[in-house]
Amino acid sequence: MKTSIATVSISGSFSEKLVAIQQAGFDGIEIFEQDFLASDFSAREVGRMVRDHGLEITLFQPFRDFEGLPEPFRARAFARAQRKFDLMEELGTDLVLFCSSCHPEALGGIDRAAADFHELGEIAKDCGIRVGYEALCWGRHINDHRDAWEIVRRADHPNIGLILDSFHTLGRGVDPQTIRRIPGDKIFFVQLADAPAIDMDLLYWSRHFRNMPGEGDLDVTGFTRAVMATGYDGPLSLEIFNDQFRAGLPRLIARDGHRSLVALMDRVRRAEPAMKVNLPAFPAAEPVEKVEFVEFATSQEDASQLETLLASAGFERAGRHLTKQVALWRQGGVNLLVNSEAEGYAHSAWLSHGTHVSEVALIVPDAAATFQRAVALGGEPHVPPRAPQELDIPGVRGAGSNVLRLLDSQTPLARIWDIDFAVDHPAPQGAGLVGTDHLAQTMAYEDMLSWSLFYTTLFTGQKTPVVDVVDPEGLVRSQAIRAGNLRITLNGAEARGTVAGQFLHDTFGSSVQHIAFTTEDIFATAAEMAARGFPFLRIGANYYDDVEARFGLDPRLTERLRVHNIMYDEDAAGQFMQFYSTALPGGFFLEIVQRAGGYDGYGAPNAPFRIAAQKRAMQPRGMPRT
Ligand SMILES: O=C(O)c1ccc(O)c(O)c1
Ligand SMILES: [Mg+2]
């Protein structure tokens, strides 16, 4: 299967786009006419540049407002088409997209349009060109691929075929299964785009909010499965109109685009084993079994603040790495590593970001397989130097500034604590923390789609819709991803003044802003931590009045919550309680949670009050803000 991407999908000059598209691994590009017109290269030069990058021009587009016009518009449309056919010859491409007409004078009529396309087919044949017809979902008369197909069928010309675009089909709610009845050889080209579920005008939605397959909420997989069932074997091409992508880094947008296409083709081949999807074999996505450890990069001088916080939360130093300055802190089933090496990756990461989470290690069913999958999806291996007796732990650059390590329980990787560490004592009971509930990662809002794509393509999992969280200084958008027993919350900061925005600024783009641990008895844990001097984030009295009224809580429960600064939430499935530490310099903090029943959220209704409390904790009362 050839992969392709439209030049409109990414930012930069024409030359920058070509480099980014080539490096990401695409086979071809769609030339959007606007991009050609805006460039200063002749058609021949553009054609040569594309080929010099090892790419082919898969499509030239769009030609607008062709079919169903009365004279004199009709003759002009034909003359215009002839001009573009000549241009295409210079570019060196033989396929053009005609989108359904939005012309105010367009008359409609399936047979009128079919006759126009038949006549056009004769001209195209003489020029060695094939014309594909696409139904824009806001087209004046034709806005559904089933009608576009009927026109193509009746045009009955070998040079006239259909172009399908997942956005136009799915955005309008047309059942993609209807594609299965179209002959594959009459589908000349397939464009793919996803989009978030937002109820808005179709044209506006399409031109500003499209995103990569898997980044939105449309069933692009179902659409592509239907396309493949027809026998279509032309390119799969991304056509993404997105305001953020237009402003993004071409290299990263192109990389994500390629990743999304590879993951999509992989989903299709696994769902439709009878179909041939030409894609190199690589292992399937698996769920995560466990977060095995989280590693902090710090320095000898800085480590004590972090260690004081960990000790106050009930962690104890239980061992150390055999060859590196890495301390193992443990409690219940949780392992934390504090790396204060004076050289190497962790040290340079500390120099760049201050004390921060530099690595996260996950137990998966087969670490080597997940690593292979990550690389097949364009992930960057992370291979630090190691001593000969140490384990070779597969690692890839994760989302943001940290490294994702992969462990499993089938291979020697399962014995990491015996092989790479000297463990002095068993994990203490501490304050009753038993596991890691979630990792909260903060990023600039424009990076959020990229990060969720990283997790959802590598592992099997689900993502929740994005919710808005109000910070006194701006909005933060939040989305949760669940991949087996890995829960990640992504917090996209739009404004610098938010708690999330400040964290990004102060840590030069570090990513894990807080870790939430699980307890089975939050009151006992809070009491134990209080005895150890845990720096509780103080929640105001107004919050407790409201929460008691909102949920009809027993006042004695409210009082217990208030005493320990525990926040409360519930839904139809169960209850949730959570409390927080104040933040370390730089902004990192801890959260402790208890889930009851089937509660599956993260206490989102509490987030604005938690954030306001954090703001107060940063600016003690009576201190003027600077
Ligand atoms: O927004 C548009 O006009 C437009 C143009 C060409 C396409 O292929 C498309 O899907 C949309
Ligand atoms: Mg299109």
TrEMBL record:
Biological role stated in the UniProt entry: Catalyzes the conversion of 3-dehydroshikimate to protocatechuate (3,4-dihydroxybenzoate), a common intermediate of quinate and shikimate degradation pathways.
Residues holding a divalent metal cation: E134, D165, Q191, E239
Enzyme class: lyase
Annotated protein name in UniProt: 3-dehydroshikimate dehydratase
Catalytic activity: 3-dehydroshikimate = 3,4-dihydroxybenzoate + H2O
Gene Ontology BP term (one): 3,4-dihydroxybenzoate biosynthetic process
Residues bound to Mg(2+): H438, H514, E591
Organism: Paracoccus litorisediminis
Origin: domain of life: Bacteria
Keyword Cytoplasm: no
Entry EC number(s): 4.2.1.118
Cofactor(s) listed in the protein's UniProt record: a divalent metal cation
UniProt similarity note: Belongs to the bacterial two-domain DSD family.
